[in-house]
């Protein structure tokens, strides 16, 4: 199944206090690492950033990507998802954040496979969802568009109105028992943890 990867890179990094996509693990920026991993899946890669961003993104020079700006500014992750889906040429789209350095390719392939026949495939750990580590069908646009026109809403606000395949903890554990796939960088403590994990060979 052909899938487009959509990377959301529009956050303001308020808790970290500086541009998180520039932070490095080893010689790569967080964004470069994410792009290199996604490139292994094949398919197009779209990077969605905010209209306000003035600094260039630290892209991976050997990974072809298309950089987009949010269609509706100030709409958060749902606005980024909308902009990516509008630009995508595939029915199914893998959506991740730019600050998730430990993506598990085997788990991503599983997530993509189980999405077929649904509008969304999203990991669920207990009561917690991972909407920025999920697969979204192009058909979600009809539900998303009126929300982003109104304002900023959480992505999971669309779930009651679409067909969702929840990927449960026992499925996740087969591929990623430590759940490192979902580690994203919001604080200095997150960044320090990520660097320690990276030094262990991940």
Helix fraction by DSSP (H/I, runs of at least 4): 25-40%
Query: What value does the average pLDDT take?
Result: 93
SSE order in H/E notation? Answer: EEEHEEHEHEEEHEHH
Low-pLDDT stretches are: none
The largest sheet is: 8 strands, mixed
Number of E-type strands: 10
Measured distance between first and last alpha carbons: 28 Å
Radius of gyration: 16 Å
Dominant shape:
globular
CATH architecture: Alpha-Beta Complex
Q: Which topology does CATH recognise? A: Spore Coat Polysaccharide Biosynthesis Protein SpsA, Chain A
For CATH, the homologous superfamily is named as: Spore Coat Polysaccharide Biosynthesis Protein SpsA, Chain A
Instruction: Give me the secondary-structure category.
Output: alpha/beta
Q: What is the total number of structural domains? A: 1
Count of alpha and pi helical runs: 6
| Strand portion | 15-25%
The first-level CATH class name: Alpha Beta
Give the tags.
alpha/beta, 8-stranded mixed sheet, 202 residues, single chain, Spore Coat Polysaccharide Biosynthesis Protein SpsA, Chain A, 6 helices
Element layout with pairings:
Elements: E1 3-8, E2 24-25, E3 28-29, H1 30-39, E4 45-49, E5 66-69, H2 76-87, E6 92-97, H3 105-115, E7 120-125, E8 128-129, E9 133-137, H4 141-150, E10 164-167, H5 169-173, H6 188-199
Parallel strand pairs: 1-4, 1-6, 4-5, 7-10
Antiparallel strand pairs: 2-3, 6-9, 7-8, 7-9
